[in-house]
Amino acid sequence: LCNSDEHPAKEELYIRVLMGEKVAGVIISPTDENSTAAKALIESRIPVVAMDRRLCHLDVDTVIVDNVQGAYDAVAHLIRLGHCRIALIGGPVQITTARERQEGYEKALRNYGLAVDETLVRVGDFKQDSGSCTAGELLALDDPPTAIFAANNLMTLGALNAIHEKGLNIPRDVAIVGFDDMPWAPSLDPPLTTISQPTYDMGRTTADLLLKKIADNNRENVEIKLHPTLIVRRSCGLRVGKEVQTVVVQR
Question: What domains, with CATH codes, occur in the chain?
Answer without folding.
Answer: 8-65+198-227 (3.40.50.2300), 67-196+230-248 (3.40.50.2300)
